[in-house]
Structure prediction request, 626 residues.
Amino acid sequence: MKYYIGVDIGGTNLKAGVVNDRGEIISESSIPTGADRPQDVVLHDILKAVHNSIEGAGGVDPKDIRALGVGSPGMIDSETGTVIYNNNLGWRNFAIAPKMSEALNLPVRLENDADAAALGEVVSGSAKGASSAMIITLGTGVGSGYVVDGKIYRGCEFGHMVISYGGRECTCGRHGCFEAYASATGLINMTKEAIRDNPDGILAGIAAKEGTVSGHTVFVAGEEGDTVALKVIDEYTGYLACGLVNIINGLHPEVISIGGGIGKQGERLLVPLRGKINAEVYGEVKESPAKIVSCTLGYKAGLIGAAMSVRDI
Amino acid sequence: MKYYIGVDIGGTNLKAGVVNDRGEIISESSIPTGADRPQDVVLHDILKAVHNSIEGAGGVDPKDIRALGVGSPGMIDSETGTVIYNNNLGWRNFAIAPKMSEALNLPVRLENDADAAALGEVVSGSAKGASSAMIITLGTGVGSGYVVDGKIYRGCEFGHMVISYGGRECTCGRHGCFEAYASATGLINMTKEAIRDNPDGILAGIAAKEGTVSGHTVFVAGEEGDTVALKVIDEYTGYLACGLVNIINGLHPEVISIGGGIGKQGERLLVPLRGKINAEVYGEVKESPAKIVSCTLGYKAGLIGAAMSVRDI
Prediction:
């Protein structure tokens, strides 16, 4: 059996895992990122997590570990294995892959973390076996990762696709980006607005009870039949469907998997979403040619995908 | 030398050409389509054009012709070589590739005509040698064809990407599609509106002299410094840039080639367009990572690309 190591560099934790060639995690290790530390100090902890994961993989002969894949947020250059910039970690032009390769005496490849997670979902998650799959992560922003014929299509970035020309301001400086509408942040803003307009309603009551407004709040109120919440869900899924139909028409992925905090809503998100997508897809079809599902691997997708990205080495 | 035949099924003419493996047309033949005739009668004329092109390719030994590629408009199934539907020609479930293959005793493959034209531009036109290129055709509608690593990415369709949620009605039934804004039709509508609002201006005068409003009219008036025309060009290139930046951010093509009637405007379109794109692309860059150029092959792109699509046979 061949084994690969996957590393996921998160804003909160550094994770490393030994993964077999079927995409199963044999052992994993996690260390707090400590994002405010110098990059070489963080690198030291990444290597520690890697060693921990190897030690944890009892039955695995280290000689059978063929290569290591790293998934990193931010702008990266996979050719040189360099993180060009990462605002959360304060990294600039950090040649992480060559440094790790030298320290571990293994081939190391760097991928974008959303790309790696997408590959994970295709190898052993929600899009297992799909010839092409787009993974859309709905969190603070909207991430996208595209996998075609088992390979990462690098740098796919549909979060900053404008769907509403001259519309809501986006953190990127443009107006009307998909992210400004379809992210958890976008949904939370819409929920807060609905609460302001209906301060005595069920939605407002649930938010008061929870003490905060999250991407979850509106779905809880919707299940209680609150019309204000249902209207927010309707509007939100309209925007989300719009961006997804653009991707379906444009690229014809076999599967679209929805991840991130909002993806966890499962069928209460997917049922209204599929209805809107089916009504909008292009051509003489009554139903979306792409299967719309939820991601299933959670944080493991990034580890598995990073490891699987070096299977061809 | 190996040779291939390319066939382009247009609404007006059926074209066939013998093409060498460098993408150079050796001979070509054209026959009016006669779109209102039964599909088998049209097929007969397609075969006639193919035979004419072979006869015209004097020095080419027919034994050296390896395969034939057909580019067809409408919805197609490349796997079975069937045109599923084509509204202009009235075709429904027409298994054109198997029929041509039997008649000619050659392997025959069917591609979408926009896809074939995109491959032509990559093999020997505006995007020659590009590792990835998106060809955007601005005519009655907005067509798109994507070529990655020398191969067609089938069925890429960004004309019906919504860029303005709830915006202008599109012929497809959705609202706010890129096509409704960036097609020649969209530009002509905007030009007519500007003329209605400014009936005594330079733009109105040029339209009156030409006797009609075309996608060309506003650029002629713009060159004379007409502020009304310049405003239309500014608005139009804003929409066009929006859709192209979505594609650049989403897929990172190395080259975007603009074809169709509007593509012929060359630098008077491209100069304002590039300015807008550079201002909008995502990330810490000052300039579009994609080269923005005009298509150079005209109708020949479809013939060359169809022929080159069967190079691997």
